[in-house]
């Protein structure tokens, strides 16, 4: 079950509370002489002037020589409405910006995790490649040793048996079959060592 989206619920709740909160702030501002004089009435008069100019221009009524100002009560009501809209828009814009930054950080963390996984995968491949090269060197070294020992014991060595999937199973001998099945599950180096122990050393004991 997915986690309850508490953050999104909080954002939605804050959006719903922004309107009554803005209304309370505007009401208090209307009653305060300083805010009423400098933050409510001037924006209302400016908005009224721009609205009258725009309407007359769109209706081709010419340019008014002077736009009559609103009375104080009308200016206060209009300015209060404007302030309320600005507050609501500012809150919504702030929440939107905050959510955008939060999502950006989330995506950045995902990308960081993905890059770490890619780097780990690359390192693992490099380690496997180095291990494979080491195995190849060990195999070549073992082949040289086996050849030298075989030359001293006059034993003919079939190097094909040292290869993966080589003919190391003797179907006529049950015990040998069990041993070979274990050897096949081992690495190439272990197969070479087992071959040397059972074949070359066994020949020396018989002789």
Key descriptive features of the protein:
207 residues, mainly alpha
The main sheet comes to:
none
Overall geometry comes to rod-shaped
Main structural class: mainly alpha
Weakly predicted, low-confidence segments: 166-174
Number of strands: 0
Q: Helical amount among residues, as a percent range?
A: over 70%
Strand content: under 5%
Q: How many domains in all?
A: 2
| Tally of alpha and pi helices | 5
Order of helices and strands: HHHHH
Oligomer: single chain
Mean of residue pLDDT values: 76
N→C terminal distance: 74 Å
What topology does this entry show?
Blueprint: H1 6-31, H2 33-58, H3 72-153, H4 174-184, H5 188-206
Helix pairs in contact: 1-3, 2-3, 3-5
How does this model look, in words?
Belongs to the OPA3 family. This protein has 207 residues and is mainly α. It has two domains: 117 residues, no CATH class; 53 residues, no CATH class. 79% of the residues lie in helices and 0% in strands. The protein has five helices and no strands. It is rod-shaped. It starts with 5 loop residues before the first helix and ends with a helix. About 4% of the residues have low confidence.
Brief overview:
Keywords: Coiled coil. This protein has five helices and no strands.
